[in-house]
Amino acid sequence: MSLQEDIMTALKEAMKAKDQTALTALRAVKSAILLAQTETGAKEELTEEQELKILQKLVKQRKDSAAIYLEQGREDLAAPELAEAEVINRFLPEAMSEEAIAQVVIDTIRKIGAEGMKDMGKVMGIVSQELAGKADGKTISNIVKAKLS
């Protein structure tokens, strides 16, 4: 079953359960996927990689919003954002551990012979492409910085 079908099924279940948080989150996912399809002008469905990037973006947006709300002492606004992020997260594959990401980074550094921060862009490009949908870009960046410095 494709991601869009999974989202529609979950959306119907959320409607039946009258779960407003899930409804809001799933409608946002559906909207983002439809928008991406119309932007590409493609009649066929998006690739799995494109769908995963959309989901990751939506989760990141909600977590960033929640962090801002928490900085401002607005727990009442942060809680729904985090709940929506959790709903969307159910459709993402399980994230890799930091140790596994670090191993991929180390292997990539050895493979391309990276030396220092001047090669960070090369390493980030290769690792980000290899771990697309499996790891957060911020986590990858922090690990690459630590290994190259």
TrEMBL record:
<dbReference type="InterPro" id="IPR019004">
    <property type="entry name" value="YqeY/Aim41"/>
</dbReference>
<dbReference type="InterPro" id="IPR042184">
    <property type="entry name" value="YqeY/Aim41_N"/>
</dbReference>
<dbReference type="InterPro" id="IPR023168">
    <property type="entry name" value="GatB_Yqey_C_2"/>
</dbReference>
<dbReference type="InterPro" id="IPR003789">
    <property type="entry name" value="Asn/Gln_tRNA_amidoTrase-B-like"/>
</dbReference>
<dbReference type="Pfam" id="PF09424">
    <property type="entry name" value="YqeY"/>
</dbReference>
<protein>
    <submittedName>
        <fullName>GatB/YqeY domain-containing protein</fullName>
    </submittedName>
</protein>
